[in-house]
Write a structure and sequence with these properties.
Blueprint (H helix, E strand, L loop, with lengths): L1 E3 L5 H8 L8 E6 L4 E5 L2 H8 L5 E4 L4 E3 L4 E2 L19 E4 L4 H5 L14 E4 L6 E7 L13 E3 L22 H10 L10 E6 L5 E3 H20 L9 E6 L8 H12 L4 E4 L19 E6 L17 E4 L3 E7 L2 E8 L1 H19 L5 H11 L1 E2 L14 E2 L27
Helix pairs in contact: 4-7, 5-6, 7-8
């Protein structure tokens, strides 16, 4: 990946080189978000031609970023994964058959086993919001998505991977599971959001160059929807779930995420499943991301969750019900991991974005998250480095909100805020 200095353009670069850089290698892709480009070329091209241009700020060799494992439930611990049809009522809705993990995230109090199983939420939660699952793909026809899931730009192949890896569907279950937790009808938080599959990897890894290209295109699509004045739009905003991690710091990924945030798109990432300090692992360490750790249904740190000062908030991540498939059949499964936890937080942010149509203000989305999360519930995290004792919540039962508000800080009726 090649990044230009400020005010240095691709045309300046091509003029210096004296020929078309795209013809000097394979997989060339212009990246306005850096600005710069990606290319697969031999070292002589990079060192003897590209780096010689003084307008090139840096060149980064692309590496891969991991999709943290979704840890399966032990076969003798599998629970009944049937999901009943949910009923809703105007403004506020109550799901009396919700998974316990959802109930925890609408309760203003710490709940213990056994306890009430009512998940309370705004009955249009997530409507008009595009949740981008940048991951392994999604089985978009799973009934949990009610027809609200789609492949990015309706592509029928993966543009960010080589031809041998271009199958658009999820072959790992990772992306499908996370999508259902963020926005599924039965197991998700933002039950009316648009779920968008942005496939960037196979085999539980993704090239960082593919992630950067995907985020570049997501930002462009988001900006295009904000600027579309041709007809009334229900577009409320966007949020990205990026449950990838474990890589060394990447300047290209850092620059890209900062520009995505400035466009008004929050980025939620998983802390990782290594039971170690997340501070030096990307993208959790990237400024402005919402980095999520995992706890169990007793609010205790899971044995695998990373921790530390870079963590923003925690959410359930042990034996969580999510959408899956077996051979050609859709089903539900139980999985564990900080990826699962991150998807819950993605859904909660989609709820705030939806109600206020927060298309451009990531700072306000972060404020809504902070105003509504629960503090002091968590146990079992190491004292050093300290992990913030904050637990994800949609705000529906917070005592310091008005009856006319679905969460703390919300306007008294849904409105458009740009």
């Amino acid at each position: 990946m090649v990044k230009f200095r400020e005010n240095h353009t691709l045309q300046n670069h091509l003029s210096y080189i004296g020929s078309n850089i795209a013809l000097m290698g394979d997989e060339y892709y212009k990246l306005d978000i850096l600005p710069g480009y990606t290319i697969k070329a031999n070292q002589s091209v990079i060192h003897d031609i590209v780096r010689k241009d003084g307008g090139v700020e840096w060149v980064e060799d692309t590496s891969v970023i991991q999709m943290p494992d979704l840890i399966p439930a032990d076969s003798n611990k599998e629970r009944n994964a049937s999901v009943l049809q949910r009923t809703k009522r105007w403004q506020a809705a109550v799901d009396s058959t919700a998974p316990r993990e959802l109930v925890m995230q609408s309760s203003a109090e710490k709940i213990s086993l056994p306890s009430a199983n009512r998940f309370r939420y705004w009955n249009e939660s997530g409507s008009g919001v595009d949740i981008y699952i940048v991951d392994s793909g999604i089985k978009i026809h799973h009934p949990e998505f009610e027809g609200r899931a789609s492949d990015f730009r309706d592509w029928n192949h993966v543009s960010y991977l080589n031809a041998s890896e271009s199958m658009i569907e999820d072959t790992e279950e990772h992306g499908t599971c996370l999508a259902s937790i963020a926005g599924g009808k039965g197991v998700g938080i933002a039950k009316h959001a648009n779920i968008v599959s942005v496939k960037v990897g196979n085999g539980r890894t993704a090239p960082i160059s593919a992630v950067v290209r995907a985020l570049n295109d997501v930002r462009d699509t988001h900006n295009g929807k904000k600027q579309d004045r041709s007809r009334p739009s229900r577009f409320a905003g966007s949020v990205i779930n990026l449950s990838l991690g474990g890589s060394e710091p990447s300047p290209a990924l850092d620059v890209t995420i900062q520009k995505v945030l400035r466009a008004g798109i929050p980025v939620v990432v998983s802390a990782g499943n290594k039971n170690e300090d997340a501070s030096n692992r990307s993208p959790c360490s990237i400024r402005g991301t919402v980095c999520v750790a995992a706890v169990d249904t007793r609010y205790r740190k899971t044995s695998f969750s990373n921790y530390g000062s870079e963590v923003t908030v925690s959410a359930p991540g042990k034996l969580v019900m999510c959408a899956g498939y077996l051979d050609d059949f859709f089903d539900f499964q139980y999985r564990s991991g900080t990826s699962v936890s991150a998807a819950y937080v993605t859904g909660a942010l989609a709820n705030f974005i939806s109600y206020e149509k927060l298309q451009s203000d990531t700072d306000l989305v972060m404020q809504r998250m902070r105003d509504n999360w629960n503090v002091g519930f968590l146990e079992g995290f190491p004292e050093n480095p300290a992990t913030p004792n904050t637990f994800n919540n949609n705000g529906m039962t917070k005592q310091n909100k008005l009856p006319t508000q679905p969460y703390v800080g919300a306007p008294h009726s849904p409105r458009l805020r740009r």
